[in-house]
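Working notes for the structural subgroup meeting. M.R. asked for a predicted model of this chain before we commit to crystallization trials. I am recording the input and output together here so anyone reviewing the notebook later can reproduce the run.

Input as submitted:
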Amino acid sequence: MGTSLSGLTPATTFDALIKVGDNSALSASLKTISDGEGNDSPLKLSTSAVGIGSITNVETEINGKQATLVSGTNIKTINGSSLLGSGDVSVSASPAGSDTQIQFNDSGAFGADSLFNWDNTNKRLGVGETTPTAIVHIKGEGSTSATTSLLVQNSAGTDMLFITDNKIVNARENFRVHHNTFSSRYMNIQWGSIVANDTGNELSLYGGGYSSVIYLNGSTKSTAAGATGIQSTGVLIAASVSQSSFDPEDSAQLQVDSTTKGFLPPRMTTTQVEAIEATAGLVIYDTTTNKLQCYDGSSWNNLF
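Returned structure, recorded in token form:
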């Protein structure tokens, strides 16, 4: 503790006095500063340095801390530069591509492509298209089956649905269309078969409106399961005819046209004919007698 100045009168030429430990002038050595009653403070002074507590030179200490911070050893940096310095800190990166192009990681940097776009005004995504016209617009890059515009695979990597650039839609295994309200009703297309599961007709083919229809394996035909029912004003069977020559007879329910082939009825032996539970008007060809026959409701009669 320094010597007390209590009760002493300072020289009239000084406004105040700074008390050091030895009551001598400042020198090159640090001296503790105390108040007028001899109470030491943590401040120390010399002719070249200021000390506080255990720090013998505040300037040296600050310079050392500053050097550590600037070096980046104990402070975070942005893009390799220290945060210390004047002005605001800003982080920016130049986007790749032009307006509407989607940004993506390209070898650790922003990348873009003119054929990968987002129309934010209309909320549309374009793949292979610069100005998409649908919510998702996919445009192919070719015109043959060698290139594919759309590919959907399952978790095993097996192609399930793909559209090639020659306008062909390909579905593996099967393609199913469900009823809009009843999921149990559907039409299923798969290799070798077309199936329609419905409470009424198994499969109905309509053409030119609802006046003409073909029922295939109609479930309502309980007495003839597997039959083909045709609801029409007439059926014309003709080989390689054009629309202009398609001329069915009004009075014919079934008409077969050809100039090179004939109509062949069912052919069987007499034993097989007699085993039929026939109805009147049934026609067959008996291969035992080589005769065309018709059943009149009670017996078979030769037509020639």
